Amino acid sequence: MREGIVFAGTIAVDEIKKLEKYPNRSELTTIRSISRSSGGAVSNCAITTAKIDSTLPIEVVALIGDDDKGHFLKERLGNYQNIDLSHVKVIGDTPFTDVIQDETDHTRTFFTYRGNSSLFDEDTIKFEKLNAKFLHIGYILLLDSLDQEDSEYGTKMAKVLKQAQDNGLKTSIDIVSENSNRYEKLVPPSLKYTDYCIINEIEAGKSVGIPLREFSGDLITSNIQKVLFRLKEFGVKEWVIIHTPEGSFGYDGTSFYSIPSLLIDRELIKGTVGAGDAYVAGVLYGAIKNLSLPDSMKVGTASAASSLFAEDSTSGVKSYEELIAMYGKFPKRERIEF
């Protein structure tokens, strides 16, 4: 009987640099602090899930290098007894991301080195060796080999997701946020073989060609339902969820849900890196435990909020019981109607 979850795809080391203020081009700024943490969908989601529930079986499928960053990732993931690293392969250079965080507004800018991520291809995951019930894989647009065209399925990523479903796994995808026009070509093929699509408003809007942000930065609430419906129409079988700083919005094919985000005092926020992955991990944990869509969104909301309490991606995350208490305790933003 399958149980637990496998996280596959992008893994990296985050080199976090907090700046006094992000500079304009050719200007100088001051780095206030430097730290290192595990990063990428695989390590962020695996560690977050392990902290939410230390008994849930977790498997990791990723490529790391025989280098300082690879050793760092293996040590970090190895601190959790319920994370199985037997599917990790050592090859090439470990990817890393310079996370540049502006102390004035807590915004983040990412400079990434892809390293061996281009080597993660359609044959990397050995489904016959997995025990998990759920597969979460990311990121579309960042795994070059899986973004390649496939004559039957549209992309190699879509082919892998179909193989996962054929092997009895529920599938979940994530996308990287980038400034490009690749979304409408590379994302829809995978949605046909996705059970849970949990992405942010930029990724969601670009994937279907309907914007969710004004140039001013305001959320276009009138488009939320259209985007959710369109993503589901591409073939997502269970849940479509869009998460934003203002709140998250879900659709299960029957009902739409709006869950407000938590109001966190500014002085409590140490960093925002990894908040999206923390949200995804919380929602997937709810799905694994057969919670309803809105209740799973609440777990994701609290998980993302708790990640803000630390500079890195995962140190602030709490256990499931603590997250439920946190969601009930903290004040919420005003619920967004759409």
Automatic annotation (TrEMBL):
| An MF annotation (GO) of this entry | kinase activity
Mind telling me which GO cellular component terms the entry cites? Answer: cytosol
Q: What is this protein called?
A: Carbohydrate kinase family protein
Pfam families per the UniProt record, alphabetical = PfkB (PF00294)
Entry annotated with the keyword Phosphoprotein: no
Keywords from UniProt, A to Z, are: Kinase, Transferase
Cited InterPro entries: PfkB_dom (IPR011611), Ribokinase-like (IPR029056)
Transferase found in the keyword field: yes
Segments forming domain Carbohydrate kinase PfkB? 6-312
Q: Which organism is it from?
A: Bacillus timonensis
